[in-house]
Amino acid sequence: MSAAATALPMPSTRPVLRERGQREVFCGLTSIVWLHRKLQDAFFLVVGSRTCAHLVQSAAGVMIFAEPRFGTAILTDRDLAGIADANAELDRVCRDLLARRPDIKALFLVGSCPSEVIKLDLANAAERLNREFYPEVRVLSYSGSGIETTFTQGEDNALRTLVPLLPVDDAPQLLVVGCLADVVEDQFRRLFEALGIPSVHFLPARRARELPPVGKGTRVLAAQPFVGETARALIARGATLLEAPYPLGVEGTKAWFSAAARAFEVSDAHLSACIEPGVTRARRSLERYHPLLAGKRLFFMPDSQLEIPLARFLGEELGMETVEVGTPYLDQQMMACELARLPEAIRISEGQDVEAQLDRVRESAPDIVVCGLGLANPLEAEGITTKWSIELVFSPIQGFEQAADLAELFARPLVRRARLML
Amino acid sequence: MELTLWTYEGPPHIGAMRVVTSMRELHYVLHAPQGDTYADLLFTMIERQDQRPPVTYTTFQARDLGGDTAGLVKQTVAEACARFRPQMLLVGESCTAELLQDQAGTLAASMDLGVPVVALELPAYSKKENWGAAETFYQIVRAALSGRAAEAVTAEQGPQSALRRPRANLLGPTVLGFRCRDDVIEITRLMSRLGVDVNVVAPLGATPADLARLPDADFNIDLYPEISRTTCVWLERNFRQPYTRTVPLGVGGTRDFMREVAELAGLDQERILESEIPGASSLAASSSRLPWYSRSVDSTYLTGKRVFIFGDATHAIAAARVARDELGFEVVGLGSYSREFGRELRAAAGLYGLTALITDDYLAVESAIAEAAPELVLGTQMERHIAKRLGIACAVISTPIHVQDVPARYSPVYGFEGANVIFDSWVHPLVMGLEEHLLQMFREDFEFNDRAVPSHLGKGIAAQPSPPEVDSSTAAGNQDASTSLQWAPETEQELRKIPFFVRGKARRNTERFARERGLAMITVETLYDAKAHFGR
Prior knowledge:
Helix content of chain A: 40-55%
CATH topology of the largest domain in chain B: Rossmann fold
Number of helices of chain B: 25
Number of helices of chain A: 19
Helix content of chain B: 40-55%
CATH class of the largest domain in chain A: Alpha Beta
Largest interface: A-B, 63 and 58 residues
Largest sheet of chain A: 6 strands, parallel
Shape of chain A: globular
Structural class of chain B: alpha/beta
Strand content of chain B: 5-15%
CATH superfamily of the largest domain in chain B: Nitrogenase molybdenum iron protein domain
Strand content of chain A: 15-25%
Radius of gyration of chain A: 22 Å
Number of strands of chain A: 14
CATH architecture of the largest domain in chain B: 3-Layer(aba) Sandwich
Distance between the termini of chain B: 46 Å
Structural class of chain A: alpha/beta
CATH superfamily of the largest domain in chain A: Nitrogenase molybdenum iron protein domain
CATH topology of the largest domain in chain A: Rossmann fold
Oligomer: heterodimer
């Protein structure tokens, strides 16, 4: 680990409940659902089974596009008979696909559980296909398999594959890492410009072929908590990871911008002047949620890695009390600043044994449980109010202007429950 | 390896989950990696189930692969058994676990759990969801009946028994099936009217103990052949229970079904069908309103409406019959993703002078629809999206379904009430009769054209984009053939006066007409010559 990384606060020593058992979380393939919308010139080809195809389709819900920019090369009995055959088959599928879709400039081969188990070498396949298609199309590979990744880790793996391709530039610049909704990205870009930060890039950019530079002058600011591997790969290329909580809520966003301002020696006065309108607006808009949410008890099932930052925001700014915050895995480095702000009384659990965790939910009788779609209706049927966690990944929730929208997502199920005379 | 963008069916273990989740007192341990629990949301969200599916996943990870995944199976099985105490345990594997060759089912069977264990082997790399459901149902039935001798059962019973009413099992309904919940109610009512008792309904709502009573019935109703045919065939062979071949969809289908049931139950057909005499003028000629509604003058405009049908084999084949014989539509396409029923589909398509489209390639279905330029699509949720894009009316008739296909109100598609539901849901998406006439008369009216906003919305509102025109020359990708053809500007102008929803058809027919006659330029004369040639 580099010097920049060790400069971060010591890993938290607070106890963590580590569990194994049935996990009710998506695998990394699911990130394709938003990655393919963000990267408008990319195609994501899952090399996997019918289960993978069905998963991505089910997670994408009703968003059926004529020819989406994702698909699955489904392994069949014939492919499993011999690996050499599977490689030739993959090449054929990619050729057909690229011939059909001349608009595609980057092709991501996405590894799955079955492709990992049969040890189909997608890195090698990408190299082979690049010899044929580069520079018209860049072929990349990463794993989104459930045996190696949970939900948002798929994005981390996808972004990490881009890191070796980034051009070198040692000039001072800010690199914001992690997919954000376009509207949020634009707001952030305007604020960074106002601060006077010389050069600001986002990873990913809106096109996979637009690659931001990286070098010794690069300061990395993580916009999402799940980009740990990408951040470490950037550190290995000379960049420095800025220590900050995530831009959720007024305080998180403020601290996040402050970290960038400090790194680029922006004066406190100028920082305050720039963010003041946003802070004031956000605080005012959060006021109406305080009475609705203060004192309400929360329980987070593990899902997207956003659980810890959300617990921090809802506690600090809206007075909610978190009973347990579950996370699929705990990345101490990426969570250091968040953990430092999270009250000790909150139980942190890592991994999952869903039956045992549901027993804890029933025992602690929280006012609202944040969970996946597989659990929400069954919990509601038991009389427990829920908030679908997937909405937190698919909605613009970061930044000052979205702070109230984020609070609204938690208030709405409670308000609805109170309204219905059923 | 096959490239798939959208899939009609999930893998076979999803079919197993549908069967298990439909039943009670049953638990399924699935050897599967993290992520496969996505399947739970199909049940809790699409079907709004208020309980999690009775499925426990082993959730193995990469670090387990070098170690003892078999141990993980045993531990999960033991814990699931202790927690859920099922009457019967199913143990199987998803696609990845199949590659590990842990033999999860065999492992569990050797554990002495005190409950019957069914080891499910569902080849994930060659089979799909419906096959998996059929196989799972069959395996559960076999396990439930393992102690029951066929001879002992049949010797003491028979439909002719004077001591009791005839009895039948309703087989095949599952969660995530198409309108199964209400079809079961409708068919149970119908059976009761016929004087036949329903012995067991399965899988929906049944326990393993209920399945042990299956042989008490005189015959089986094969309600959803994709799911229940395998089991029906086995029960016929081993317990001498005949099964029905007719699907009670539509008025004709329901009448034929009643006839078949009467025959199997040894009941008087004439008496049973006396209130269902086709052609009778009284409203009471059917228990369904469909025959009268369809004969009523308002329905005249339905005549010859071009309809494209795609779905599972059972619903697609039955829908084609209703479309042509009961609504007077013209069936211009018939297909299914159910390869298992290819023979039946080809035979059915032959009745309409068509070649069956048997494929699970979504893009192939899309281009077939564009090519056929129908006025109505009857399909699955996939076809609903295709139709929406092409600007064609659509009704959903088959799985795969979405949340809106599980309505709150009672809405079966089987039986006489089902026929009523079909009339409403297939006719309402179409342009209504008088409305169509007005569109014809005032085709250039400033408010009626395809770019106009409904006048009640006022003037300030921007025109909505028109639906993409169904144009065979581009949609079918045969530009080469049409490049030699040229449309005179005034003919294009004239074509625009034709209502937008039939314009594609007019263009296609005119070009075909011109091509057949070797014309290079399409004039207004050619347009009307073609119109006269092709008739309506």
